[in-house]
């Protein structure tokens, strides 16, 4: 199995109003195998989201390089194979669920007939076929998250990036979304990289958890989670792994 994402010696500074530079990331190395799930955890301000944005091509690194499916990100052209699911669902309130899901296909210039077919298939994949014509205000929080997930999946990506997309959901709905993401990832053969503050979420979802030290962010530790899926968030094994990971973050 090859590498879907490789972060090599990435560093990042952000300029400040006083003329100084804020050192956000320092020499970060990260390897994400194809069809695996990797979580990035760490204290607030350690650069987790910045690292995800660099992988997504939204922010350039000041040093180092990112490789996507073996290609340097600067030379990467097939950006439709990578999608980003944000913390907020960012659904357009004047569009129906189906129209929100279709947005990326419209931007890519996909023909109307293809858009209709793929949107219907993707809504069915996340269990929302009966709500295609519903507007965001008519949907529950969990359903809105499913629409956001469908919008990320409709381009049929090989890499899905997620920045705490389920943090605002209540625990039971969050657990359902965890199961949904893993089910869909398995069906589509996707690689997932996600950022979270929730240690239990990292242990429940990820094959590998990367912890970052505080600013400047650098890799503290990488832990492989060798537990079969599905993982019960209330199980003793998850509780123990979460405890050890939390201790690592505090050391």
TrEMBL record:
SUPFAM superfamilies: P-loop containing nucleoside triphosphate hydrolases (SSF52540)
Domain of life: Bacteria
UniProt keyword terms in alphabetical order: ATP-binding, Nucleotide-binding, Transport
PROSITE patterns: ABC_TRANSPORTER_1, ABC_TRANSPORTER_2
Gene Ontology MF, one: ATP binding
Gene3D superfamilies registered for this protein in UniProt: P-loop containing nucleotide triphosphate hydrolases
Protein name: ABC transporter ATP-binding protein
Organism: Methylopila musalis
Classification lineage: Bacteria, Pseudomonadati, Pseudomonadota, Alphaproteobacteria, Hyphomicrobiales
